């Protein structure tokens, strides 16, 4: 029962703290930027810190986007093909349970990340590399996965992503079949959640290059 207790306590604390923070900070510029309008440098362009309302809007667009829904459906399809977990069976009912579980995990992950990040004044925006070359950009992807930009333009350890991964790992483990209920399995799911942030950042970094390459190739073929 420990994983479930940790989950309930964590989610309750995040929800209460977020509500209190929102009530006190709505329409107020974050404390780190009250005296000086500090900007972050992203891809050579200065970006002002986000307000709490803007962070909430970004959270909403990520959580309830078509991309997130389709991503959950894709993950459910893979789990259905692998028949994982086997207790959920096959067919429409089995796929429905897996799809709901996958999307529910995304909602919990985004909610926990938003709540902790807002409290700690973290900037949730993707931070592209300012370097050239695959190796240097990949190193930046790893760095920007472990560390996160803050509202005052600095960087620190990504506590919001860590907390979100742990909360999500225990949440997923709590609704899996009883044979899988264990702290070890929940922590393994949490570790996979941390890795997913790195995968997501890698895709954000290099997808524009892939698109430009494909577009250029299509244009060349059209001219032939």
How would you characterize the overall build of this protein?
- It is built from 7 helices and 4 strands.
- Helix 3 (about 65-80) crosses helix 4 and helix 5 (about 135-145) runs antiparallel to helix 7 (about 185-224).
- The strands form 2 sheets. It has a two-stranded antiparallel sheet. Strands 3-4 form a two-stranded antiparallel sheet.
- It has one domain.
- The model is unreliable at about 1-45 (pLDDT under 50).
- It has helices spanning about 1-25, 50-65, 65-80, 90-120, 135-145, 160-175, 185-224, and strands at about 40, 45, 145-150, 155.
- The chain has about 220 residues and is mainly α.
Order of helices and strands: HEEHHHHEEHH
* Cα-atom radius of gyration: 20 Å
Provide the residue-averaged pLDDT: 81
| Overall SS class | mainly alpha
Tally of DSSP helical segments: 7
Shape: globular
- Looking at the chains present, what oligomeric state does this protein adopt? single chain
Spatial order of the strands forming the largest sheet: 1-2
Low-pLDDT windows of residues: 1-44
Query: Which percent bin holds the helix content?
Result: 55-70%
Largest sheet: 2 strands, antiparallel
Terminus-to-terminus distance: 66 Å
Which helices and strands occur, and which strands form pairs?
Blueprint lengths: L1 H24 L14 E3 L2 E3 L4 H12 L2 H17 L8 H29 L14 H13 E3 L5 E3 L1 H17 L7 H41 L1
Antiparallel strand pairs: 1-2, 3-4
Helix pairs in contact: 1-4, 1-6, 2-4, 3-4, 4-6, 5-7, 6-7
Compact description:
This protein is mainly alpha-helical.
